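Record 1 of the preview.
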Amino acid sequence: MRDGGAVAGRDIAIEGTNAAGRDVIIQNQTVLATSAPTVVPSELPHAVVDFIDRTEATAQLCSLLGDGVDTGTTTIAAISGPAGVGKTSLALSVAHRLRDRFSGGNLFMDLAGGRQTPLEPAAILGEFLLALGAARIPESVADQARLYRSLLANGKFLVVLDNARDEQQVRPLLPAAVGCGVIITSRRRLVMPESARTIVLEALDERFGIELLGVVAGAERVQAQTADALRIVHSTGGYPLALRIAGARLAGRPQWRLSRLADRLDDQRRRLGELQMGDDEVRAGFALSYDGLAPEARRLFRLLGLVNLVDFPAWLPAVLLGDDPDDAEELAEQLIEAHLLQAGEADAGGSARYRFHDLLRAFAAERLEAESDEAEQSEALTRIFDAYLLLTIRADAGYSAANSAIWGPWGAHLPPLPAEYRHEADDHLGWFTRERANLLRVIERAHGAQRWETAIRLAVAMWQFLEITARFADWRAAVDLALDAARQAGDQVAEGYSLRLLGRLELTRGNIDAAAALFEEALAMLASAGDVHGTCMARKDMSVVARLRNRHGASIDMLLSALDGFIGLAEHYRVAIVRRELGIENRYASQWTEACEQFRQALAGCARSGEGPQGAA
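->
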């Protein structure tokens, strides 16, 4: 500063007022001030009436900006998050709470950062300068910014910059004067000055989602139909904008049961269409973020809509694109920066994972249908299916290599994954636990795409994990899809194996009669198809049913027939397992010598095959 409060400038002559209400003339690199009152700018729009939750974020922002006023420092807070998550609502709520602390006044501008033609800094500075009382506006952005900072120099102002595009748009708008506060909202993660605090806003949880829906649609109505209200909250993903639209639609239709809207929202294909009312539309906000992406990032986003995955591994983008893993990771990071994808928690092995919000996945599916041809979708699906099948076989081999090769070397034709991805499945229990939900959805997707063989193989390759971990509902869902796929494909062998696995499920749950019927049907089908391995397996299964019914003679007959078949196939591990079962039957008959001999041969057979003596399929 020079004497009299002058600051450096350029050779221009601009009149205005500064924060202290005094006339300002910038001339010959000098700012001169005289005394004259001015209007205190107050530009904040109304705060959202039904603002819900955000207690922690509100407290952080109020503390940060309030401390700045008290200590005489300029504070900058950035609120980042996807379209419709409530960034502007939070910013205005906090700004109204603090408006009296900023005696100089407040400025507000929607920077239109999500649109194709966002506001340029010159236009924004021009509006702010007029609000601050400037008589004339400099031509260059640099001069405008200099005058803007000068006018804020001696006051405490709160500046709210809503919907910023990037750092370049925001930087000229940041005051340098002490005691000022700035709140910025953006759909992208902005690289702000080190002193700035960034808050990433996420969706509302169930409790606050229900509360917001009740505020808009009627609390008593929502509480009386809580189950359907929860379905609406889940379908909207807890996004406040989507919940307000859903609530407004219900409020305008008091005769509707909540289940009517919940049923409509359950259909992902029509979900975004249901979430629009008047000028409010969830889809439009997503489209603005999507349109701002580079072409390859848009392609990745679209392809992520191929499969209904919520949480997925770092290798999936590379597989979807058929691209270099590093390049795919960079594109995924672009989606994260645009809040179209979320970084999930790393898995136990330290590998990155990503999360996809339900509404964004629905939007991705819309873009996929509109912009990607069938060939691109089919090729990407094949890559996903092959990758998951390769890893599932590898993980299943951790339980039993013999069990994972029911139809020969499935993985022989599959394209190799990078080594760092392949080894994820070496921790077979951990990998299956992480990918269980995804595998079920991939099986559903394969079935829906009429990729019958893929659906069958994936279900069979993961059933051991489902049996060992007693996930009966998942077991039923996976094998039911495999059974239907086998019938659709006319694959009699696959149908017989699927019936066997359903029989094992019933047996595990203690439904002996149901298991017996399924095993008998499987045996007849596999024998008719001439599948010796499957026939022997079904006979081994039926021997267990016979034993449970105390029909030990029938059990031994079944086992001896299976033993002959496995010996003929040179399946040494299966031979060992059947000998173990024969040893159990000999023990029931008190034939101790014969039992010991069968157990001895079973152990030797397991050792030769490289398998442990645990159970077998």
